[in-house]
Amino acid sequence: MSDYSIQHKLAQAAAAGEAGAAAAPKIRIRNLAKIFETRRGRFAALDDVSLDIPAGSFFMIVGPSGCGKTTLLRILGGLETETHGSVEIAHSGSERPLNSMVFQGDSLFPWMTVWQNAAYGLTMRGRPRAEIEEVVGHYLSRIGLTRFKDAYPHQLSGGMRQRVSIARAFANDPEILLMDEPFSALDEQNKLLLQGELLRIWDETRKTVLFITHSVDEAVTLGDRILVMSAHPGKVKTVIDVPFGRPRQVLELRARPEYGALVYNIWEELRDEVRRARAQDEEGVRS
Ligand SMILES: Nc1ncnc2c1ncn2[C@@H]1O[C@H](COP(=O)(O)OP(=O)(O)OP(=O)(O)O)[C@@H](O)[C@H]1O
Question: Nearest 10 degrees: CA dihedral of 170, 173, 175, 178?
């Protein structure tokens, strides 16, 4: 194995299980770098990223377009290999899958009903029928889609399809949830509703979530911590704690003066990076 090869280590959590391992980070990223070989040469998408992400935290990632957010998520999801460094995800030792991903676009199987889509992960893992019925029934009810369980994706609105994707991801009961701008294609009203629904489901499970967004508002509304990434090559610029408690009510939170102040601070961190990314685009620095 070369120095550059992937080192996804599944650190088995202690026999005490996940609760006992709560103090340890769920995800430990060390000196992570990703270099793409392109026709124009080597292109560094990520450079020396080190992070600890606590178990049960809602961890938001913001950064200018092209700074490597999706690349980071894809490495965590095992869809991409790192060039240098390491990623460790603490595994609870059960049969749970390591991750589930929710993307921006449609990721549902068009030939499956809502119920079948939501049940997909559990069905693939051969879970008992009664368990699948119970878990899928629970999450479809939580996102208000029980009535549509026999509908096909083309019969649903974009917002409803994203709700099914969220139900599927939670029903799969993964160690970590990876969400790449899941609401960015939705209109403002739907976005607000889905943010509230996601928070309610998350409050029940307290799964470790990594969530990419371009919206500073969304980052502050949902997150416990916000990683601000620098423009190319993607690095950790800063990690900001969100001081608001749980459970959160989306609209009430936004009415608080501290909310506006935090959004402003984060935007200040981000603004220079967005400008740098723009300048890089004009200079043709990026691939
Ligand atoms: N397979 C690839 N081959 C070459 N370059 C790539 C590849 N995948 C991503 N890149 C480049 O790496 C950089 C980071 O891409 P990535 O999609 O991770 O950024 P991002 O921050 O998620 O962007 P956005 O916010 O626009 O979605 C970009 O310049 C992109 O062009």
Answer: -30
